[in-house]
Every structure is written in structure tokens, then in C-alpha cells.
């Protein structure tokens, strides 16, 4: 049996990844803030794959106490084969105009949550497990009008790179995923056509392809951008 944990699992890239892993036979713990959204996602997957288990675990991952409780709830799982750290938020603003507290919240949710949840789940990992962090092209190149977000995603990439080195002798693979602009709910209602941006399913397929590599090989970074470039 295969067991996975996906954060931000009720929408966008997280939902697409949960669907892709479920199709590969995974039992999944689905994490997001909205209990109602998680219930709908779990029900959808249960209907499609009745032999597998899908549990929704509502949590605000910007809160260390809730992360600790989440880790405790998952201690009963025999192992965790895949973790996808996808939870995050994008609050664009210039350095001068960024609202008070926005930097701290984006750092907590986009970067610190992966650090603390990884620590909470470490005892359930084993040789052959695979951890993914959903970073961003902003992890490598700061974006004007999004300095706080860029800082948080750069921190997430640095964490991923350090973890890769720390765990390489344990047989645990670590991959940073750096998507360009992806059509998620934040683009709904805009004039941008979905086909102009990356589809969330493209990110999910890349994650599954990396996970399927034979032992002894790891993709350290996946950089995906729209074919026509960024807007």
C-alpha cells in the first residue's frame, strides 16, 4: 500500500496532484483550511477509488500548533510514501504598499509550514519516500510587486535544497517544483484564457513522473513555464 499527504489539497495544483496520486493507488491525507472543500474532495476520490482511503484534515498551516496536531493525527499511518507541500498564498504588493503582517503570514504559510510539517512527519518516512515542495519561479528570481511572496518562496527553495542534502543518505528523495504562472482559482474572472497558462494537471503529472523514477535517481528541481512564456 502507498500513503501520501497533500497540503492545499482542495483546489488548484493540490487538488490536481491528489487526483493524480489517487489514480496511482495512493491512500491520501488531504489537508486544507476548508473542511467543506476537503469533504467534497475526499468524497470525489472515494467515489472514483472505493478501495482506497481518503481523509480530510482541516488545518491552518500557518499555525504551528495546528501543524503539531496534524502530525499527531497521522502517527497512526504505517508510513508516508509521498509528501506534497503545496499549501501557500499569494498576496502581491510593492514593498512600500504591502499590508502590515502580510510578509509574516506568507513566510509562515509558504515556507515555515513545510519546515514544521516535515519535522512532524519524519518518523513516518522511510527509504524510498519522496517529498515535494511547490515552490515558484519567484523562488529564483524576485518579482516586482511581489517581494514578500518572492522572499517566502526563495526560503522554501533553500529549505528544499538543504533537506535534499541532509536526506540523500537516507534514501528519501526531495524535489522542488517551480511552476510558472498556473491557471488556478486566482485567475478566474480575469480575461486570461486558461490555455495561455500552465494547467494544474501539468504540475501533477510532473510530480507523478518524478516519483516513478527508479531508485537511485532523483529530479532535484522541476521548472515548468507556459509554452508562450510569462505574462
Radius of gyration: 17 Å
User: Which structural class fits the helix and strand makeup?
Assistant: alpha/beta
Strand order of the largest sheet: 3-2-1-4-5-6-7
Give the overall average pLDDT: 94
CATH class: Alpha Beta
Low-confidence stretches: none
CATH superfamily: NAD(P)-binding Rossmann-like Domain
**Number of structural units classed as domains:** 1
Helix content: 25-40%
CATH topology: Rossmann fold
Number of helices: 6
Annotated CATH architecture = 3-Layer(aba) Sandwich
Helix/strand order, N-terminal first: EHEHEHEHEHEHE
Give me the count of strands. 7
* Through-space gap between termini: 42 Å
Report the major sheet: 7 strands, parallel
Rough outline: globular
Beta-strand content bin: 15-25%
Quick structural overview:
With 231 residues, the chain is of the alpha/beta class. The protein has six helices and seven strands, in the order βαβαβαβαβαβαβ. It has helices at residues 12-23, 35-48, 64-73, 102-121, 147-167, 200-211; strands at residues 2-7, 26-32, 54-58, 82-85, 130-134, 173-179, 221-224.
Word description of this protein:
The protein is an alpha/beta fold and 231 residues long. It has a single domain, classed as NAD(P)-binding Rossmann-like Domain (Rossmann fold, 3-Layer(aba) Sandwich). 39% of the residues lie in helices and 16% in strands. It has six helices and seven strands; from the N terminus they run βαβαβαβαβαβαβ. It has helices spanning 12-23, 35-48, 64-73, 102-121, 147-167, 200-211; strands at residues 2-7, 26-32, 54-58, 82-85, 130-134, 173-179, 221-224. Strands 3-2-1-4-5-6-7 form a seven-stranded parallel beta sheet, sandwiched between helices. The longest helix is centred in the last third of the chain and has 21 residues, at 147-167. It is globular and about 50 Å long. The relative contact order is 0.14.
